[in-house]
Amino acid sequence: MTESVFEKIGDRNPQFVREVKGRLKRLPILLTVFLSLLMQTLVYINNQRFDDSLKENVSNWGGIVNSINLLFVFSLLVCGTYQIINDISREESRGTLNFIRLSPQSEVSILIGKILGVPILLYLFIAFAIPFHLVSEICAGIPFGNILGFYIILGSCCALVFSGATLISLMAQNIPSNSQGFLAWLASAIVLNLLIFSYSISNVSDYGISLNHAFAWLLMFSPFAIENYLMADLSNNMAAIELKNLQFFQIPVGLNIITVMSIYLANYAFWIFSIWQIIKRIFRNQKSTWFSKNYSYFFVVGIQILLWGFTLQNQNIESKFDVSKISYQIEQNISYFLLLNLILIYSLMRILSPQRQDILDWSRYRRLNRQHNQDRKNHLLEDLFLGEKSPSQLAIAVNLLLIIVPFLAWIILSPSFAVETINSFLLNILLWKVSNVNSLHLLLGIGCFFVLTIIYATIYQRLALLPVSQPFSWAMASILLLNIIPAWILMMMKIYPSQNPIPWLFSTFPWLGFSASIPIILVAFLSEIMVLVVCNLQFMRWSERVGNSTTKELFTVQHQGN
Question: C-alpha distances in angstroms, 242 versus 28, 154, 236, 237, 315?
């Protein structure tokens, strides 16, 4: 019977059967069952208390449930992360992972087989504790729907973390083999610390954590906050109360278990899907870009939906939809938007930038197509927009537009937009505030920021194509210096925005020059556009020259061969 089941599973996922057969031996199974029963016994004994009225020990079922919940979360996520990364790293060092790559199985089937098979003893450890966990929850008076919800959230969180562990192990294949074992320990230590941090902020008793801001979506990664929500009768902390007030685009999702779980699961699904987009691209080709350009647009839109959804919340959940409060809420979240979107756009510079050889191939074939009169005017634009091997500047510009458009709509459609002071966290780092801002100032300032960012993207793409070791690292370091040095020089020269805002319009922080007059901001904006045009013309000329030279080399080799 068991053999026939394994044969059926093996037909669908041979990798899973391979992993399971290598681990489900008699001695490891017995040891796992013993440890699981020992853990349950210790938890039960530790949660016994003496009742004076009954003159006997009684079980603290709520404490038992909370203890087992912690053991489930920490053991699954921390130990599972270590096992998956350690196994894939060991396969890579032995060279067997290359044989697996040559198999007719899809990369999804292979890696899911590892995620399900490598921690099989860990799953067995948890499975033997589930009956005791269910009995404890029923005795504690927790509804079955809440119990099922906890298992669904925990399984989804495991899927996310294990997918991330798989991605880390694949991205670290160039690390020396003697350091790959350390990588597994490091990754599991990071997961452990993140869990401890999320547990600490999700289990406060004397103060609440406000979720009325764009960073609220980060809480959707932690299983502890929703565990407190599902087990609200066992924990009277403020985190569970705050989650009940959660809104998404002013929809009160926190009032119902189904909607809260839907937000959690949607967040998990979005990130799991994005991680697997990268895994599928780099499993067989390490030099591939992490995202395709068309998926990057979907990814950026998804991030913006998350940010805007948790930004547009009402302070008072019982109040009606009030348009007048929207501008105030957005203004309070500008620093969150700025920080997260800066991280996002600079990450996309790395994610979408092709390797040097890919750019050389793209330049050569584009030149060959032109020689054969197959090149159309819109072909270049389409290639830059969606092409796998084309430069990334246009894709970065489109993604930046997707980020900026909601702000433009807010500025233009706001009936009475006039911000006397925008007080941003990042601006406070420079000890300055933006004062006397109107809609035209902001529109021109956003334009300056857009153009400067594309200039940096062009510089990054060019530096990433240099024939040096680790070109992407050099390019990112150079861009970070370009972001920091101009503002640092201005501060060292005591050129402050309040006294001389014009130089700040050309820095990485153009909004610090908003106090300048409209004509000056407009001149700065047009000047930056000219710099952008020159940079991209130079880049295209370089690509033409490279395409010409590689084409000549190709024809020379063919001629000599004939």
Answer: 44, 21, 11, 9, 11
In this model, does residue 128 exceed pLDDT 90? yes
Which amino acid appears at position 145 of this protein?
G
Angle between helices 334-352 and 293-311 (to 10 degrees): 170
* CA-wise closest residue to 469 among 173, 92, 174, 178: 174
Q: Six-digit token pair at 368? A: 């060959």
pLDDT digits (tens, 9 = 90+) for 259-302: 888 988 999 999 999 999 999 888 877 778 888 889 999 999 99
Decide if 305 contacts 401 (C-beta within 8 A): no
SS3 assignment, position 59: strand
Nearest to 289 by CA among 164, 162, 403, 390: 390
Q: Is the pLDDT of residue 304 over 50?
A: yes
| Torsions phi, psi for 437 (to 5 deg) | -100, 130
Would you give the DSSP letter of residue 387?
-
Cα separation, 311 vs 16, in Å, equals 42
**How do beta strands 56-59 and 48-51 pair?**
antiparallel
According to DSSP, the β-strands at 434-438 and 48-51 are unpaired
Query: Model confidence over 18-65: pLDDT tens digits?
Result: 888 888 888 989 999 999 999 999 988 888 776 656 656 667 888 888
Whole-angstrom distance, CA of residue 5 vs CA of residue 10: 8
